[in-house]
Amino acid sequence: MSIIRLDLSECPYPPSPKVVKVISDSASTINRYPKMLGGLLPDALTAYTGKSKEQIVIGNGSDDLIELIIKIFTHPNEQILIPIPSFPGYWYAAKNLDKEVIFVNRDNEFGLDIDSILQKITSKVKVIFIANPNNPTANLIPCHILAKLIQQVNCLIVVDECYYEFSQETVADLIDMCPNLIILRSFSKGFGLAGLRLGYAITNAELASRLRNSTQLFGVNTLAQAAAITVLTDLEYYYAQIEQINKDRTNLRRGLEQLGFDVYPSATNFLFVGTEKLNLSSSYLEKSLQNQDIHVKNCGMLPGLDDFYFRTTVGNYKENHILLAKLAKMRVQ
Amino acid sequence: MSIIRLDLSECPYPPSPKVVKVISDSASTINRYPKMLGGLLPDALTAYTGKSKEQIVIGNGSDDLIELIIKIFTHPNEQILIPIPSFPGYWYAAKNLDKEVIFVNRDNEFGLDIDSILQKITSKVKVIFIANPNNPTANLIPCHILAKLIQQVNCLIVVDECYYEFSQETVADLIDMCPNLIILRSFSKGFGLAGLRLGYAITNAELASRLRNSTQLFGVNTLAQAAAITVLTDLEYYYAQIEQINKDRTNLRRGLEQLGFDVYPSATNFLFVGTEKLNLSSSYLEKSLQNQDIHVKNCGMLPGLDDFYFRTTVGNYKENHILLAKLAKMRVQ
Fold first, then answer.
1. How far is Cα A283 from Cα A297, in angstroms, rounded to an integer?
2. Interface of A with B in 6-25 (CB under 8 A)
3. Is the ipTM of this complex over 0.90?
4. pTM (2 decimals)?
């Protein structure tokens, strides 16, 4: 049996035939540098995002844009604020750029504790990163709550919507009203291009221009550009796939709940699962599954969590079935 | 006629059939994240570089590594030193990271003026970038001169050998003796993978580890990894191609000299050309060729040069022929 990877919230399906074809067709052109700044992709994204190409900035994955934002918008001794638990990529980037990070706990249901956040904001805090839906907790903060926060603070707020294709909720409508808002999106999740590295930012034209001025001109490879543009011409294929993943998520949730796990609401392609009721530590669970060639993500070591949480991607039918079967055996032991 | 691109020192030929095949074959796997830190590529590079995989760091193009080096090894108010004329990517990256740049002129033949460099070095200078062969001037500094400089200074020296496949000269032998040396290499030039973005650094294991600790885990895309590993199994194909380009460079040089241009010695896949003797400004020349769908690089605006220098890639036979024909006409006018 080959290894089942459910630890990186990847799409379990290969790209659409159209996307595979454009990659093959473009392979013979890679002796040439990529088109600068994502080439025609910002244009191609205007219909999908409802924003102008001047408001869109392409990156070598969202990770690239996270670092770019911190690099441009913070000076030495300034700080980043992150409601936790959340995606470690934010503080990894901050650490790499020598910036101090302030953590603020989310509430018991992993919602934002706006009062706590406001209390922690000083003039030194320059950027707040909010994953929405959140990773790894899978929950979605309603837009009106985010709007309230965005309008109450002066610092930049980055809303990371890399699971937008699953949640279908966005604060993009606020861009024109809120000069301090940057949205991040990704082609890695709903559109399954994780291996090619492609993320983008949506913001006002002024901030977008500052990002564009400091990003690498040739940072986004030719095949990622071609694949992403083709995805946007093949949305029906991808929407059907996303619907399938959402259905499979419901089934996987039921299976996990029947085994006695706590499964949290998810607006993503993964499930966040509590193991405490079963008295199973998530580090043990991760290791035990790994020994059986199934990888899930132990979240026990993340700031804001303890050793009773894991995250599993919604895999394909067979992968989900095997995961449930292995967990059923583990519970019995 | 389609546009002839001789402005980016690209390889004029598509990748080898083996490389095209591995890209097509890997296209269906890009729903998965790339292997971290370039995956198996550091292993694959050990034979080619003669260094251990612990001494190799993979980046999303050399541009990525240039920025990574500045990010890690300079603090606020510290400086970068660059002998000019040289590759603008160094000061572009420094500017993006808010670092001050000190330029030191090269000598009349674009060699290093070691005394001038030593005079400009203070405790604030943390990194020196030396392209070797140099871009855009195409000349090669002999290794023993670089060795002298490297051993005389305390700061880091980055020797950018992205044209190594053409020059076949390297300071890699000094890595084990000089704790302040980082070499950059690229798959964009001799190996023609510019569109996929792949550069690498060679240095001692300690510096390599620091670079690796601050780079993006998933920064190098899956298809770049697969293509580069395959290039290294197909070196005879590429060496034959490089030999062809070197021969074509000789012919292009002769043609340009016959037209009265000054052509500088080249250890690269491009030629650096002086236009002053013909009383032709390089900005005019660039524009005039561009109007005829041929792109060369005007170097007149680079610090350390004036409006009488351009750079042209050695294209394929037909491209070089057309370039010479157009230049012959321009000279007559």
1. 9
2. 8, 10-15, 19-20, 23-24
3. yes
4. 0.97
